[in-house]
Design goal:
The protein is an alpha+beta fold. The chain has 10 helices and 17 strands. 23% of the residues lie in helices and 34% in strands. The strands form 2 sheets. It has a 9-stranded mixed beta sheet with strand order 6-7-8-5-1-4-3-2-9. The chain has an 8-stranded mixed beta sheet with strand order 11-12-13-10-14-17-16-15. Strand 3 and strand 4 form a beta hairpin. Bound molecules: fe (ii) ion. It comes from Lentiprolixibacter aurantiacus.
């Protein structure tokens, strides 16, 4: 449990505006509902370097589902598939394809977290419940957020097992070398037309978050497409949830494309932090992860824009890594192509060198790159 404490490396942006009725210690895990958890687990291990952690399925007494838990430093992923027709997981996959069901948040008091949020208007997903096995107990509760996504509150200070009660250690022969991913920097939600403010208000009112930054369609537009975005953050800055909505442009916004293929609001991307983006992206690319590319011209004037950086430009150009600067430092970032067949979820790799922002200076180059992908899919 102590391994989840990421204060020292997270450079959290303290957000004094936020209220502290819901203290959050970090992201506990992210659960994806997927069509074939066994094969998805292999992908996240072999391509992304996650390590096997825990398993629950027929062998542990479950009848209708199976879950594999993977970990890389402080990032935990749970991949869950149904074993029988019907039910909530099948319905979720049928509607959305593979996607994020739960963003679980690590708390000291799952009961209080539930009470504070539901009393402020959150819709209940899971009433507080204690789960127990020979390794101790965990209390969970949960609320709904945008689309069919939920937040689970995890209170685990009396638990010493590999993950949660009911899971056993998963120790396969196969292990892949990690890729240097450290923690979840932020998780982005895409919501429908005119729904961004509603969901930002939800995070403000129900969870005590405050707005960190806001981007309108003038910040985030190209000649053809646009979107709007606001970043909500909790008080200690460990949890950051940007919320995007589509905006009118001459062609179809990437957010609209997402909403169509995801069949509603959902998680668009997870941003995973590394301490060495060149090494991480080199490994990921060698193992088959596909990234968006920007034109070579991006690198011609990037240093004029961002000033001096520690890295050589050549490997950044070769890998397609983007650079941006704010008042406090700079950041390096890159985005994968969608990691699923539906053009829905992707992953961002980010290395912060002082900067606490989100790469605004890269939006235009990035969205032009996404438009080229949309055009190739016939969805621009
Ligand atoms: Fe991001």
């Amino acid at each position: 449990m102590a391994t989840l404490d990421n204060t020292s490396l997270h450079l959290p942006v303290e957000n004094p505006e936020a209220e502290d009725f819901l203290p959050l210690l970090g992201t506990d895990y992210v659960e994806l509902y997927v069509g074939n958890a066994k094969q998805a687990a292999h992908y996240y291990m072999s391509a992304w370097g996650f390590q096997p952690l825990a398993y629950a399925g027929l062998e542990t007494g479950l009848k209708d589902r199976v879950s594999y838990v993977l970990q890389q430093d402080k990032i935990r992923l749970v991949l869950t598939s149904p074993l029988k027709p019907g039910g909530e997981i099948n319905q979720h996959i049928n509607s959305h394809g593979d996607g994020v069901k739960a963003i679980a948040l690590w708390v000291d008091d799952a009961e209080k977290s539930y009470r504070e949020t539901t009393s402020r208007g959150a819709e209940s997903f899971l009433e507080p419940e204690t789960f127990e096995d020979e390794n101790g107990k965990v209390k969970l509760s949960g609320i709904h957020t945008y689309g069919e996504t939920v937040h689970i509150f995890v209170e685990r200070n009396e638990y010493n097992g590999p993950f949660l009660p009911g899971y056993r250690e998963w120790n396969p022969h196969y292990r892949a070398e990690d890729t240097g991913l450290r923690y979840i920097d932020h998780m982005v939600g895409n919501v429908g037309w005119n729904e961004m403010n509603k969901w930002c208000e939800f995070y403000a009112k129900v969870m005590g978050f405050a707005q960190l930054v806001s981007f309108d369609d003038k910040d985030i537009s190209t000649e053809y497409t646009a979107l709007m975005s606001k970043v909500m953050s909790n008080g200690n800055g460990r949890i950051k949830f940007p919320i995007n909505e589509p905006a009118e442009g001459r062609k179809k916004s990437q957010i609209e494309e997402y909403i169509e293929f995801y069949n509603g609001a959902g998680v668009q991307h997870m941003a995973l932090a590394t301490n060495n983006i060149i090494e991480t992206v080199t490994k990921l690319r060698d193992r088959g992860v596909e990234f968006l590319t920007v034109p070579a011209t991006y690198y011609e004037d990037v240093l004029d824009r961002v000033g001096e950086i520690d890295e050589d430009l050549a490997p950044l150009r070769e890998l397609g890594i983007l650079v941006d600067r704010d008042d406090e430092g700079y950041l390096l970032q890159i985005f994968t192509k969608p990691i699923l067949d539906r053009p829905t979820m992707f992953i961002e790799i980010i290395q912060r060198k002082g900067a606490k922002s989100f790469g605004k200076g890269n939006f235009k180059a990035l969205f032009e790159s996404i438009e080229r992908e949309q055009a190739s899919r016939g969805t621009l």
